[in-house]
Amino acid sequence: MTGVALRFCANLNFMFLEAGSLVDRYRAAKSAGFEGVEGPFPPTDVSLEQFVALQKETGLKQILMNISLGDVPGGQFGCAALPGWETEFLVNLERTVEYAKAVGCRK
Q: 44-79, pLDDT tens digit by residue?
């Protein structure tokens, strides 16, 4: 087999946390030479317009976007399968899809 060029994207759920905010993590990924990023779910402190501007500023491709996990510090790790959380899940899903579409993310 001949050499295969591998391409990696930065998972901002785990990488560049020391940079602080999501905006700064995007910038750190760009500075480190990444061309694409994955995760995290759309933050409540970054508007859709700011998110689109951030992608344009950095030139990073949003390869994958996660959905909100809920109250992780409180022990919640997702809400899709929790009885009584259907509305929260649908709200999270709609917001995630809106952000993903705005930056051309298909996964």
A: 788 999 999 999 999 999 999 988 877 777 877 778
Whole-number Cα distances in Å, 78 to 29, 36, 93: 26, 25, 11
Structure tokens at 33: 């030479």
Q: Cβ atoms within 10 A of the Cβ of 21, count?
A: 11
Distance CA 103, CA 58 (A): 12
Gap between the Cα atoms of 62 and 19, Å rounded: 18
| Residue 23 pLDDT exceeds 80 | yes
pTM value?
0.83
- Helix 48-58 × helix 22-31 angle, to 10°: 10
